[in-house]
Prior knowledge:
The chain is an all-alpha fold and 194 residues long. The protein contains 9 helices and no strands. It is globular, with a radius of gyration of 16 Å. Helices cover 64% and strands 0% of the residues. The protein has a single domain, classed as Hypothetical protein af1432 (Orthogonal Bundle), CATH 1.10.3210.10.
Amino acid sequence: MSLAARWPLPHHEALRDELLAAWDRPGYHDLLHLDEVLDRLDRLAGAGATFDPVTTRLAAWFHDAVYDGAPDDEERSAAWAERALPAAHAGEVARLVRLTVHHRPRAGDGAGAALSDADLGILAAPRARYDSYAAGVRADFAHVGDDDFRAGRAAVLRDLVGRAHLFATPQARELWEDAARANLERELAGLSGR
């Protein structure tokens, strides 16, 4: 199914097309990433995770819509959602987008947990896809020198590895936790030259 066909808000196709154009860029945060996040939301729903499908999928469409490696990318993406979406969805979509800064949803936040897990699900990808993802992240931060990138990336990965669980939903833990931890450890070892 095409990405355009996966748009969850009928009668707002012009907004969908603006988002598709925004996602059409090099690096990791591209159209493939959007497609994979939507696939993982479908997989989580199929495994029994409960969340509002329209709002959560809209948040997936907006979560990296603005992306240039700046610290306020998520905030600018959330602000776009607030400006562009109908009032019935705008506030919740913006909240979910902001949650992707740290991927730490509160207990009982089904939509936040599902979006966070779908976004982080790349960490459990097969080795070739994970390596492509890691290369894409490096491309997204091409403006950062190698030493600074390695230090920053290692800090992010150590934070993830240090969590009791990488994923917020039991479904994602079952599907992806072990593979994700293995990928993170392997990447960390490579960053430190081990």
